[in-house]
Amino acid sequence: MPWSPFRKLTPYADAAKQRGVVVHHLNIGQPDIETPPSVLAAVQQADIRVLEYSPSAGYDSYRRKLAGYYQGVGIDVAAADILVTAGGSEAILFALLSCLNPGDEMIVPEPFYGAYPSFAVAAGVHIVPVTSHIGQDYALPPIAEMERVITPRTRAILICNPNNPTGYVYSRAELEQVRDLCLRHDLFLLSDEAYREFCYDAPYVSALHLAGMDQHVVLLDTISKRYSACGARMGALVTKNQAVAEVAHKFAQMRVSPPGLAQLLGEAATDLPAAYFDGTKAEYHRRRDLLVARLQAIPGVVCPVPSGAFYVMAQLPVDDTVVFAQWLLESFQHEGQTLMISPAAGFYATPGLGRQEARLAYVRNTEVLSQAMTCLEKALAEYPGRTA
Amino acid sequence: MPWSPFRKLTPYADAAKQRGVVVHHLNIGQPDIETPPSVLAAVQQADIRVLEYSPSAGYDSYRRKLAGYYQGVGIDVAAADILVTAGGSEAILFALLSCLNPGDEMIVPEPFYGAYPSFAVAAGVHIVPVTSHIGQDYALPPIAEMERVITPRTRAILICNPNNPTGYVYSRAELEQVRDLCLRHDLFLLSDEAYREFCYDAPYVSALHLAGMDQHVVLLDTISKRYSACGARMGALVTKNQAVAEVAHKFAQMRVSPPGLAQLLGEAATDLPAAYFDGTKAEYHRRRDLLVARLQAIPGVVCPVPSGAFYVMAQLPVDDTVVFAQWLLESFQHEGQTLMISPAAGFYATPGLGRQEARLAYVRNTEVLSQAMTCLEKALAEYPGRTA
Question: Which residue numbers delimit the Aminotransferase class I/classII large domain (chains A, B) (predicted)?
Fold first, then answer.
């Protein structure tokens, strides 16, 4: 079982803070956006005498309202197609356990969400990476490359769309290529759509928007980012494939029920007006524009414009972003500040890839981002391992 | 992956209710005891702007207070030994994933908690049952029988103490036999102590009270029953074995954090006065006494007196409790009432065992229990499959 790839940096960040240095955390996906007060109020004003188990699949009322939410984004599912989970994390675990047998393989475009390898270990399955490249803005790898790695053990393709860590939003054409591949080889398409609401330039296309894929798609979802409620641990596994739904339901029965208080929160969130997202999306959009503009202005930095989520992947003019990230925390400060970034090696399965790339999250306000970018600019000018 | 063994009865219960029959649910471990209002208030009055991820191991403040709670029950652990989990369920899963490799074996006295086989499937490990018998009040099976089934793949013994479903509380002498066995064969002792607070006649002995076992014990815990907060999904994995703690922590990082709101609840619960348990324990004690007295008064029923938890296992004078449980829902009523019981076959791994036994939970008040016992008495008099 692997450690989180980013854990090694934490002691250096703690040490920097103890020296009085302000560390701007661009390494994590924890937004500073307020959790909607009306949503918290639903929990805080609920009349609860006994906090009982909910049904294993989640409260019926919440599942019905979630179905309404999905209908609102053009995903035609019913309450019965939805299994409420403890965060998107549990949805990922249940999907792997339900769709793959131990020893089976799953194709995943890399760079990918850093926790996927741990879920693969937990479920006893193998990740087969296919590489996206910064030169192509981290677009979907050529479908022929994905087809080439299919073996008799391949059971699924796992995508994250909009993508963490790249911010890339897959186009309908790309998703239709993936669909055709899944149909040709009878593969599941596990689609992690945690960042659905955050598409700035590109239209959002869900795996469940694809015609002919009802029996193949398992959607992995969470309210963590949608409503800035990461700590609630409230997610969903959505599929119209009844055989998969049935197995996933057995895993849900195993742990009796998903978190109860968080379901009240999730249900209240479905009552937010559609305009709620206008505000948060506009805020992230501003942040992205600032972060990308500042990155592109730094000599030697290569940074595609990400169309979604709230991450930027940048290529830095350094020997190794693992070394650089540690140096930022250990040996650098500018006016009492520094920043923490995520070295991209942790997002790749292929050894050696991502050594010059890092992920930066724009989950802090523009003032913080601006200060962090000034730090990065100064740091790259000073860094002894600078390469370009 | 197996279905919950009790799922088949649910449609019959629903149908009975639709016919207007009152179904007394003695089949489930969902107490009617009020969740302490001060504990709910801690969540409901919390000042939350952004519901952020907690640390993967849980909030430090909660872990420190949990350590204090454990110290209070004579378990000498520090905050660092505690991993906060999404219910006891996640603690069970993480323990299996952390202590056993796929294909390894785990010895479990049967009858056992009905979800253990599902966790074993999820973790890819095998349950090796050793049978407890009603004739011995479901005491620990002879240690020689447990030793006989040890193979090179055996890595752990899993016990539930106080026991679900039998209510048996293992004595210190029994636990010391288990300890010696674990030490002789270098096995982990996974100890599910969800019902710690509910010992009526026997003293409670934790696996972590056993000398010399610090490197072997993994305690699986939950606040579900302790504070009647099943829906919170708040548990803990506790171990002084640093290697196990480290691997479990990696699984915790995989799912980022345990439920946040429920941690506030759990933390507030540690502030309840020790006298809190006097009230709930006395209530369950009354219920046990009533249920056991009523069961023992029914001709042909065999019912040991359980010393802990809130379950009774009884042998009924019927052909098959699966058939009888369905008949109770489908074909029987007494003054518009019937009851739902858990056929014990679902608690055994050995095929054919438990066919005359059923588990009855005393999680409803004495009036309900009394009505349910009247139903059972009448039902057994009428049941066509009666055997004695």
Answer: 25-331
Retrieve residue A388's tokens.
């370009």
Is the Cα torsion angle B66, B71, B73, B79 positive or negative in sign? positive
User: B35 vs A43: CB contact, 8 Å cut-off?
Assistant: no
Class of domain A7-34+276-382: alpha beta
Parts of chain B belonging to CATH 3.90.1150.10: 7-34+276-382
The interface predicted TM-score of the complex, written ipTM, equals: 0.96
For residue A286 the two structure tokens come to 């501003």
Please count the CA atoms within 13 angstroms of the CA of B163 that sit on its side-chain side: 28
Nearest Cα residue to A40 out of A272, A313, A281: A272
Q: Over the stretch B139-192, which tens digit does the pLDDT of each residue have?
A: 999 999 999 999 999 999 999 999 999 999 999 999 999 999 999 999 999 999
Delimiting residues of CATH 3.40.640.10 domain(s) in chain B: 37-269
The answer for A214, left when phi > 0, alpha when psi is -120 to 50, beta otherwise, is alpha
Distance from CA of A9 to the nearest CA of B (A): 15
Task: Identify whether the C-beta of residue A267 lies closer than 8 Å to the C-beta of residue A110.
Answer: no
Distance CA(B53)–CA(B49), nearest Å, equals 13
- Could you report the per-residue pLDDT of A61-102, keeping only the tens digit for each? 999 999 999 999 999 999 999 999 999 999 999 999 999 999
Given a contact cutoff of 8 angstroms between Cβ atoms, the answer to whether B344 and B10 are in contact is no
Instruction: Determine contact, residues A187/A154, Cβ cutoff 8 Å.
Output: yes
Residue of B1, B253, B259 lying closest to A86 (CB–CB): B259
Q: Which two tokens stand for residue B298?
A: 């029914």
Strands A217-222 and A188-192: parallel
- Max alpha carbon distance in chain A (Å)? 64
Q: Could you tell me which CATH class the domain B37-269 is placed in?
A: alpha beta
Query: A4, A8, A10, A52: best mutation site toward chain B, by most B Cβ within 10 Å?
Result: A52
C-alpha dist (Å) from residue A68 to A75, A76, A190: 9, 9, 22
- Residue A346, amino acid: G
